[in-house]
């Protein structure tokens, strides 16, 4: 954010410097050129007055021009008309200008003062009348002084522009710091809140908008803290209320075992009691607020729980097979995925037929996203489902749980229900949502 604010400030000033500096540089060029030509014109007009006021012969005019050229850095030319071109009759002094350099001569032959700039020189032509012939007096000087003044002016403009950009950078840094620090503090407080620290408070900075967000964030933290505390209290009470009859059930089963009841029935009953206890633990864990990301290996989760699922399936004279490929870890809570699998297996046992197969594999990923996804599918040998159907019990719970983990559930026609979960990318761990096109 700081970098963007700094670039925005400096960029805005840079645009202003360019929009003002270029016209100013052009105007300065015209002003200095006009000033240099006006000064040269003043000198030419003085010589014009001197020559016109005295009756001089052509030789005297040339001598006078040689003398004036020697006393100054100028070069004087007498130019007469030869057809449509000027004809240099005489010259004096160092700078030279070709006779076909006619911008100033055309104006002078028309009775007006002519000004022009040539390669390295400035020229001014004024009408001159010697004897009975119309001639032009041209004064020529080097443009070195003009170029030096123009370079100094442009350098000053560039220096002012660089100074303005430097000041803009300094102001941008101060502004970026002033605006970015409150946002960074709010982001840090929000991150702590997201990690479950409901005592985190956002600092006040004196910026009204930022302080309003900080106040709203603090109120949210208080409310969430109260809700989580109530949820934990309810979870503790529910756990006590549920474990009391579960403990009594286990005592009754142990009494039946001592009384010599059927071992197979007792084994199935103990298995169901274990499943019930595990379900209670997972549901209570899901009711709590997650503390950060949890990475899960689906194959390990299935391996830990496959025995209990197989025991239930064997009681119904069915079997459970696992086909697990080498896939990346996923970002999900074990309790949530365990409950989703429990729902899918229960549906397969109740509504399906034959062997139940659990498959874990990488999902095809759209080229537009480039993200990896993992499929965990439960299928059986039944007739399958209607398209877009949501059969069985608990699918709504499974859908809610899997969406809470950033994935989605997909019911397919061939008696297959799949969980789609985002894999943990190797370069970052940002939260992702499954795209609709994944399959």
What does this protein look like?
This protein has helices spanning 2-53, 58-71, 103-109, 144-194, 208-258, 263-287, 298-315, 334-351, 395-404; strands spanning 75-82, 85-92, 114-118, 121-130, 133-142, 295-296, 320-324, 330-331, 356-363, 373-379, 408-412, 416-422. It has 439 residues and is of the alpha+beta class.
Mean pLDDT: 77
| Number of beta-strand segments | 12
H/E series, N to C?
HHEEHEEEHHHEHEEHEEHEE
Which class of secondary structure composition applies to the elements? alpha+beta
Q: Low-confidence parts lasting 5 or more residues at pLDDT below 50?
A: 428-439
Biggest pleated-sheet summary = 5 strands, antiparallel
Beta-strand fraction estimate: 15-25%
How many angstroms separate the termini? 38 Å
In short:
With 439 residues, this protein is α+β, with helices and mostly antiparallel strands. It has nine helices and twelve strands. Helices cover 56% and strands 18% of the residues.
In terms of topology, how is this protein built?
Blueprint (H helix, E strand, L loop, with lengths): L1 H52 L4 H14 L3 E8 L2 E8 L10 H7 L4 E5 L2 E10 L2 E10 L1 H51 L13 H51 L4 H25 L7 E2 L1 H18 L4 E5 L5 E2 L2 H18 L4 E8 L9 E7 L15 H10 L3 E5 L3 E7 L17
Name a few traits of the molecule.
disordered C terminus; 439 residues; rod-shaped; five-stranded antiparallel sheet; alpha+beta
């Amino acid at each position: 954010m700081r970098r963007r604010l700094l670039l925005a400030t400096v960029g805005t000033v840079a645009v202003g410097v360019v929009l003002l500096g270029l016209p100013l540089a052009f105007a300065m060029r015209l002003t200095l050129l006009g000033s240099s030509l006006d000064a040269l014109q003043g000198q030419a007009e003085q010589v014009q007055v001197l020559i016109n006021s005295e009756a001089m012969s052509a030789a005297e005019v040339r001598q006078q021009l040689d003398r004036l050229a020697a006393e100054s850095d100028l070069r004087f030319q007498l130019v007469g008309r030869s057809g449509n071109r000027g004809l240099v009759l005489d010259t004096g002094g160092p700078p030279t200008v070709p006779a076909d350099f006619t911008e100033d001569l055309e104006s002078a032959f028309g009775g007006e003062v002519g000004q022009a700039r040539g390669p390295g020189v400035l020229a001014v032509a004024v009408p001159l009348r010697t004897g009975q012939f119309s001639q032009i007096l041209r004064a020529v000087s080097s443009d070195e002084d003009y170029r030096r003044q123009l370079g100094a002016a442009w350098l000053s403009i560039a220096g002012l522009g660089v100074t303005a950009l430097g000041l803009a950078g300094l102001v941008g840094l101060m502004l970026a710091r002033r605006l970015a620090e409150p946002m960074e503090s709010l982001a840090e407080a929000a991150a702590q809140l997201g990690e479950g620290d409901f005592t985190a408070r956002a600092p006040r900075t004196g910026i009204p908008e930022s302080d309003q967000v900080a106040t709203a964030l603090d109120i949210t933290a208080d409310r969430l803290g109260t809700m989580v505390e109530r949820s934990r209290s309810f979870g503790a009470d529910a756990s006590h209320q549920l474990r009391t009859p579960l403990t009594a059930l286990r005592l009754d089963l142990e009494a039946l075992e001592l009384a010599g009841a059927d071992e197979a029935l007792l084994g199935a009953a103990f298995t169901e009691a274990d499943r019930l206890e595990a379900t209670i633990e997972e549901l209570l864990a899901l009711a709590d607020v997650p503390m950060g990301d949890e990475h899960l290996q689906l194959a390990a989760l299935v391996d830990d729980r496959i025995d209990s699922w197989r025991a239930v399936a064997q009681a119904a004279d069915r079997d459970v097979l696992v086909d697990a490929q080498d896939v990346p870890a996923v970002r999900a809570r074990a309790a949530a995925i365990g409950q989703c699998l429990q729902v899918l297996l229960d549906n397969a046992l109740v509504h399906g037929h034959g062997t139940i197969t659990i498959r874990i594999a990488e999902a095809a990923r759209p080229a537009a996203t480039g993200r990896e996804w993992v499929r965990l599918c439960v299928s059986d040998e039944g007739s399958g489902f209607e398209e877009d159907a949501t059969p069985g019990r608990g699918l709504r719970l499974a859908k809610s749980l899997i969406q809470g983990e950033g994935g989605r559930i997909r019911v397919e026609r061939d008696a297959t229900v799949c969980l789609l979960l985002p894999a943990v990318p190797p370069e970052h761990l940002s939260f992702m949502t499954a795209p609709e096109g994944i399959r």
